[in-house]
């Protein structure tokens, strides 16, 4: 499946902030994470990190799963791979 221009624009926009890039790098490195753990890594408030995660989720590059009181986040590897393939064509 090829990404649409709109999907690509959302990902580029989501990755247009250094903190969001670092969050994605962190999630790729550890493969899964709890939101609270992400907050402990960065010098920002819970609400700021939640906003960054929301933007990443809206772009499709990050997905989240609620398990009880915790929300787990991970990178959608299929979306990331499609994005990588697109970047290679530039």
Report on the structure:
This protein has 90 residues and is of the alpha+beta class. It has a single domain (5-88), classed as Arc Repressor Mutant, subunit A (Orthogonal Bundle), CATH 1.10.10.10. Helix content is 62%, strand content 16%. The chain has 5 helices and 3 strands; from the N terminus they run H-H-E-H-H-E-E-H. It has a 3-stranded antiparallel sheet. Helix 1 (5-14) runs antiparallel to helix 4 (46-59). The protein is globular. It starts with a helix and ends with a helix. The mean pLDDT is 89.
Number of strands: 3
Which percent range fits the helix content? 55-70%
In the CATH scheme, the class would be Mainly Alpha
Return the CATH architecture.
Orthogonal Bundle
- What are the segments in which pLDDT stays under 50 over at least 5 consecutive residues? none
Basic shape: globular
Helix and strand run: HHEHHEEH
Strand order, sheet with most strands: 1-3-2
Q: CATH topology, what is it called?
A: Arc Repressor Mutant, subunit A
Distance between the termini: 18 Å
